[in-house]
Amino acid sequence: MKTWLITGCSSGFGKRLAIAAAERGDQVIATARNVEMIREMAEHSGGRMITLPLDVTDAAAAKAAVAKAVDTFGGFDVLVNNAGYGLFGAIEEGTAEEYRPMFEVNVFGLIETTKAALPVLRRSGGTIVNLSSGAGIAGSGGAGYYNAAKFAVEGISEALAGELKPFGIRVMIVEPGPFRTDFLGRSITIAAKEMPEYAASSRRHYRETNNGNQAGDPDKAIAVILQAVDADDAPLHLPLGPIAHSIAERKLASFLGDIDAWRDISIATDFDQH
């Protein structure tokens, strides 16, 4: 049996993962900024789930949630940093009032929650699952700010994996493609400023045509995450769905192509040896 601390449980993967973990007999600390939205989840868990308020941008709130988890279940061995949302629009269209709060939640909130949880995890090891995205693998026009936030999640996660390995703590970066959750509904904002110059690439109409039509089955995605967390050979990177895999494969091919094409020129940069 595992004990999970999960952020962003009011919808999407966070909600589904909390329910699935409790249904299989694990203990779950489910959190959300508005705890009233998730209280009902715990009522049918047979005492295996508690719900707590947690605004991940509040470091004190993260510490309080961790303390309550320890008081209730004695600790936890899986932290899932799921809270986050996206911003669509061209880079020139975005304003600081739009993109800074997204970084506060997606990046700095993840950092604060992880820092609060590490003293507990270092005692006996465990797993940190950080929700990234196919947008964290490769950048694309119209999603630049979201790309940047998820690229930061990837870098932080890779660094943590090295830092925490001596403590028996694994890090897994989950990189979903499009799944039929409400991500494109309440979890996406669109830049208010609209510039005709970027009409072809701003992605501001992506939600209208794709919300509810995503090919990915979120329940199947949750099953894969559970399997990976349980596995002895859990991957550092876990792309979910064929689109995420295609993004990764194209990125790797393009990266290798750039490296190979400029190798001889770009490596000739050391001081001459005499």
The CATH topology corresponds to Rossmann fold
- Secondary structure category: alpha/beta
CATH architecture: 3-Layer(aba) Sandwich
- The largest sheet has its strands arranged as 3-2-1-4-6-7-9
Query: Compute the gyration radius: what is it?
Result: 20 Å
CATH superfamily: NAD(P)-binding Rossmann-like Domain
Output the CATH class name: Alpha Beta
Q: Which stretches are poorly predicted, pLDDT < 50 over at least 5 residues?
A: none
H and E string: EHEHEHEEHEHEEHHEH
Give me the number of helical elements.
8
Distance between the termini: 62 Å
Q: Could you tell me the number of beta strands?
A: 9
The percentage of residues in β strands lies in 15-25%
Short overview:
45% of the residues lie in helices and 16% in strands. It has 274 residues and is of the alpha/beta class.
Account of the protein in words:
The protein has 274 residues and is an alpha/beta fold. It has a single domain, classed as NAD(P)-binding Rossmann-like Domain (Rossmann fold, 3-Layer(aba) Sandwich). Helix content is 45%, strand content 16%. It is built from 8 helices and 9 strands. Strands 3-2-1-4-6-7-9 form a 7-stranded parallel beta sheet, sandwiched between helices. It has a two-stranded parallel ribbon with strand order 5-8. Helix 1 packs across helix 7 (218-230), helix 3 runs parallel beside helix 4 (96-124) and helix 4 runs parallel beside helix 5 (144-164). The mean pLDDT is 92.
